[in-house]
Design goal:
Layout lengths: L1 H15 L1 H6 L14 H11 L4 H15 L5 H5 L3 H5 L5 H14 L4 H6 L4 H9 L6 H11 L11 H11 L7 H9 L5 H16 L3
Length: 206
């Protein structure tokens, strides 16, 4: 499915953003995001915030070991605050993860039921949990829920990619990034993935 969507996105770009289309012409097909339960996916995103990819992977692996496998609310509820923090989380992130456990319930139905709502209602409810900000919610929608048309204007990687690879002004405001990204709809999640890939390629030593 993602292969077809990627082809459709590239064809769409050729019509609406020739510069971007030229940038990704040599990109290989994208692989689908790994499918996880919503709670598991959201905890990983919260744990990864403001960390390098390598550091985030290390933290998430420690949380997995604490939970004896997939990250779930029941397992986390059985551990003390100190044990969860010892996985490499800050105090604020530990509090946030436990607040998500309280919100979801040990059976995770609180979160699962919320996800039956419209996205704006989901977003508003998650932002009401202390420690969950717009970046985490946007990444959850894009990566955890695999929604096809989201764009996180607050993501530093996307901003840098649009500046360095698409010649956007370095001082461009989020609204300007969002305005350009609107041309990529309904494929903005795919567009974001290509931008991350383009930035990685640009920064690889030659």
């Amino acid at each position: 499915m993602i292969e077809r969507q990627d082809q459709e996105f590239r064809a769409h770009l050729e019509k609406v953003d020739v510069e971007f289309h030229r940038l990704i012409k040599s990109h290989p097909p994208l692989a689908p995001f790994e499918k996880r339960q919503p709670f598991d996916a959201l905890v990983r995103i919260l744990a990864s915030q403001q960390l390098s990819v390598k550091a985030a992977q290390s933290v998430c692996q420690k949380i997995e070991r604490l939970c004896n496998g997939d990250i779930d609310a029941q397992s986390l509820s059985e551990h003390h605050w100190e044990s969860i923090r010892a996985c490499g989380l800050s105090a604020a992130k530990t509090n946030c993860v436990l607040a998500l456990v309280d919100f979801s319930g040990t059976d995770e139905t609180g979160l699962d039921n919320l996800l039956l709502s419209e996205w704006e209602d989901v977003r508003r409810a998650l932002l009401s949990i202390k420690g969950i900000g717009p970046w985490s919610v946007d990444m959850f929608g894009m990566v955890g829920l695999r929604m096809p048309d989201l764009f996180a204007s607050g993501d530093l990687g996307l901003r840098m990619a649009m500046v360095e690879c698409l010649n956007m002004p370095a001082n461009a405001k989020p609204a300007a990034l969002e305005a350009r990204a609107l041309h990529w709809s309904p494929y903005r999640t795919l567009a974001s993935r290509h931008l991350w890939q383009a930035l990685d390629r640009k920064r690889q030593p030659r």
